[in-house]
Amino acid sequence: MPIPTRTRVKFCGLTREEDVDAAVAAGADALGFVLWPGSGRAIDPERLAELSARIPAFVTRVGLFVDPSPALVDRCVAHLDLLQFHGDESPATCAAAGRAWIKALRMRDGLDLHAAAETYRGARALLLDAYRPGVPGGTGETFDWSRIPASLVKPVILAGGLTPDNVGEAIAAVRPFAVDVSGGIEAAPGVKETARMAAFLRAVRWADDQRSDP
């Protein structure tokens, strides 16, 4: 698994203009938008277009899908830089839009990450999240980080229950390429807290500084 010199940060589940602006100002590397209607943070393609237009260059716009129809992806793809798939999508489905993509994997018992990395070898990274039956993500729960092999060939985006209080420990344990947070920076689903966003980023930078010290 490639080890970064700086941990990238994605804030996910954005629904409001003020939160998009605050996330950009805080220094997030990527902003995620949930395009699965089953989520309390879901937005539609029209709202995606509005929010995406506020995001400046060099901040990655990520769309989160769960077994989407091709028509939904087609309506959204012009407003996104990266697609994130959380369902049972095949590699061919993930690649069909012709856009860079990542595959989310829920860390259920028996999951072979090396095999998954080979299956989804076209993915730019694997996003690893906690497993809860019937829930494709956003559980707010952590998982056993020691299950992630250091030899994994794909970059890891670590998700699942991260907060300003535990993200430093997570980075020290996993050394992921990036971390992904939604509920850990919220006052309510889809409503971010500027202070918690800033605190999360401070914790990430502190962890990176600790790791780089001789």
From TrEMBL:
EC code(s) of this entry = 5.3.1.24
Q: What is this protein called?
A: N-(5'-phosphoribosyl)anthranilate isomerase
Fetch the InterPro entries from UniProt.
Aldolase_TIM, PRAI_dom, RibuloseP-bd_barrel, TrpF_fam
What chemistry does it catalyse, as a reaction equation? N-(5-phospho-beta-D-ribosyl)anthranilate = 1-(2-carboxyphenylamino)-1-deoxy-D-ribulose 5-phosphate
Q: What is the similarity comment for this entry?
A: Belongs to the TrpF family.
Family matches, as Pfam families: PRAI (PF00697)
Task: Supply the Gene3D superfamilies for this chain.
Answer: Aldolase class I (3.20.20.70)
Q: Report the top EC class in one word.
A: isomerase
What UniProt keywords are attached to this protein's entry?
A: Amino-acid biosynthesis, Aromatic amino acid biosynthesis, Isomerase, Tryptophan biosynthesis
Q: Which GO terms describe its molecular function?
A: phosphoribosylanthranilate isomerase activity
